[in-house]
Specification:
It is a single chain. The protein has about 130 residues and is mostly helical. It folds into two domains: about 55 residues, Multidrug-efflux Transporter Regulator, Chain: A, Domain 2 (Orthogonal Bundle), CATH 1.10.1660; about 80 residues. The protein is built from five helices and no strands. The protein is elongated. The relative contact order is 0.08.
Length: about 130
């Protein structure tokens, strides 16, 4: 499958696919006789995994390290790969806590604005009543 077709199927840009290949997140894609990338089903499945991990917030550096270990294709890298994922999960859980705290602060701020608006409207209504009599 050519890069444009792969990009469309994966909902990624061709530039992203080239970038991922250049930085080592994707193994070098085999090329046809004209030097055009030819993506296999295995390539697409791997890229889907990378995309999923990126969408979940995993860092490029962690994914590069994971990818390098994965393609060593050696059982001695299993615990290292697992540790990368554990560390990234912990980082994401911490980020989730920070986001939840930010949401609480925003909710409080929104509520205070609602109180201000409500009080302002009451004041205006009172002024209108006073001036109309």
């Amino acid at each position: 499958m050519k890069i444009a077709q792969a990009a469309k199927q994966l909902d990624l840009s061709t530039a992203t696919l080239r970038y991922y290949e250049n930085i080592g997140l994707i193994r070098e894609i085999k090329r046809d006789d004209q030097g055009i990338r030819d993506y296999t089903e295995d390539d697409l499945q791997w890229i889907e995994f990378i995309k999923c991990m990126r969408n979940a917030g995993l860092s490029i550096d962690a994914l590069r390290e994971y990818t390098a270990l994965f393609f060593e294709d050696d059982d001695h890298t299993l615990s290292s790969r697992k540790n990368i994922l554990i560390n990234e999960r912990e980082r994401l859980v911490q980020k989730q806590k920070e986001i939840e705290e930010t949401i609480k602060r925003l909710d409080f701020k929104i509520e205070s604005y609602e109180d201000i608006i409500h009080n302002h409207e009451k004041k205006l209504a009172h002024q209108l009543k006073t001036h109309s009599h």
